[in-house]
Specification:
It is built from 5 helices and 5 strands; from the N terminus they run αβββββαααα. The chain is an alpha+beta fold and 160 residues long.
Length: 160
């Protein structure tokens, strides 16, 4: 019952928000409304409550892929299409505002590379022992290579 009600609500909401839209079902059972002409999407999914839906909004990137949701809200399904449309418009405005903001630190330095702060997480990951070559698989390979070298040295010493 919730699936059919969610689909009907998504169809009504899509007609209120955008003239051009595509509505389809997600793998998880929620409904997605895509507005290609405005490069935005809205997702409606059942929330924890019985009469509640989780509304998420995000951007559509170049090539048609979707960016992760920028904002979300829980709305009672019985609130009606008008309340739901107002919530969606607010979430879409938040997503548009986030997209318009420059990345942190870039406007201060005035150069395309960004600030040093944006590079610090990579360095801290390596300091924490999570670098590229310190995984368990790498240690196994190193032990195997050392064993082959030791076997070669032993074999050379015994045979001459």
């Amino acid at each position: 019952m919730v699936g059919a009600q969610l689909r009907d609500t998504a169809q009504e909401l899509a007609a209120v928000l955008w003239r051009e839209h595509t509505v389809y079902r997600e793998r998880s059972g929620g409904m997605v409304i895509r507005g290609e002409h405005v490069r935005r999407w809205i997702s409606l999914a059942p929330a924890g409550g019985r009469d509640e839906i989780l509304v998420r909004a995000g951007r559509i990137l170049d090539g048609g892929t979707t960016a992760p949701a920028r904002s979300e809200a829980v709305v009672p399904l019985s609130a009606g299409t008008g309340v739901l449309a107002a919530t969606c418009r607010r979430l879409l405005a938040d997503a548009a505002a986030d997209a318009a903001r420059p990345a942190p630190g870039r406007e201060a330095e005035g150069r395309p590379g960004g600030s040093r702060k944006s590079r610090r997480p990579r360095k801290s990951a390596r300091r924490n022992g999570r670098g590229r070559h310190t995984g368990f698989g790498s240690w196994v390979i190193l032990v195997c290579v050392a064993g082959v070298i030791a076997l070669f040295a032993y074999s050379s010493a015994m045979h001459g």
